[in-house]
Amino acid sequence: MASLANKVVLITGASSGIGESTARVLAASGARVVIGARRTDRLETLAEEIESAGGSVRYRKLDVVDPDDMEAFVAFACAEFGQVDVLVNNAGVMPLSPLSALKIDEWNWMIDVNIRGTLHGIAAALPRMEAQGHGHIINVSSVGGFVVQPTAAVYAATKFAVRAISEGLRKESDKIRCTCVYPGVVESELADTISDETARERMKAYRKLSIQPDAIGRAIQFAIEQPNDVDVNEIVVRPLMTQV
Ligand code: NDP
């Protein structure tokens, strides 16, 4: 098994939930983590926590919708730690609603963050990884990347897209590893932006089935720790014995 020690791992959307937890899990195993999100107060608190536990961390404001900001985030990581071994494209939003509610702004928001954000991460990291001859891109999709539930059509479409992008990346490169992670329901703030009442009610039922975000962090750790010639392409992590 390859070691995580000193690997430079960039994590988008690290100010809460899965990203925050993954940063803790990986830093505790010796990775040098670079965390980004828009809420820098949260990043600062997380960085202090990781450092006081003996971990190595840098943080920077990041809006994944802006390709220049993503480029600056990856450049910052290179300036601080000299390389980019792993990029975890985790930032995402999920304002669910039925299509008939015509929440076009929310559809576009999901497309911007979940699809364009992932592509911007790849655009910033891939050339550097190719130049150094190795790298690992980990994209966070969802079980919604396989199955569409009512109120989740657009969200699922973005996660289908993340799955397609991951598969394309894997097939196009024999140097860059690519893992797509498909979480089931995870305890986080993701559902907090749902304004639609129907969707909120549906999510309440699902939330009872949620697992903790560190389970996703451990799955990501597993993928990174494989030897360089082993590519873990897909990991589904969901609550035991549910159809969700
Ligand atoms: P959270 O809402 O807790 O975290 C989402 C993170 O994304 C936050 O850190 C937020 O930071 C960040 N983010 C949102 N918009 C942007 C942006 N424009 N630029 C940079 N960062 C942004 O949710 P989760 O941890 O649950 O979600 C993480 C990922 O996991 C998402 O891709 C989600 O779709 C996926 N997922 C989650 C599941 C769940 O049940 N929770 C299930 C399946 C997949 P900030 O607001 O500070 O910018």
From TrEMBL:
Domain Ketoreductase: 7-189
Any one GO molecular function term: oxidoreductase activity, acting on the CH-OH group of donors, NAD or NADP as acceptor
PROSITE patterns in the cross-refs: ADH_SHORT (PS00061)
SMART domains: PKS_KR
Protein keywords: Oxidoreductase
SUPFAM superfamilies assigned: NAD(P)-binding Rossmann-fold domains
Protein family according to the UniProt entry: Belongs to the short-chain dehydrogenases/reductases (SDR) family.
The protein's name in its UniProt record: Oxidoreductase
Species assigned in the record: Caballeronia mineralivorans PML1(12)
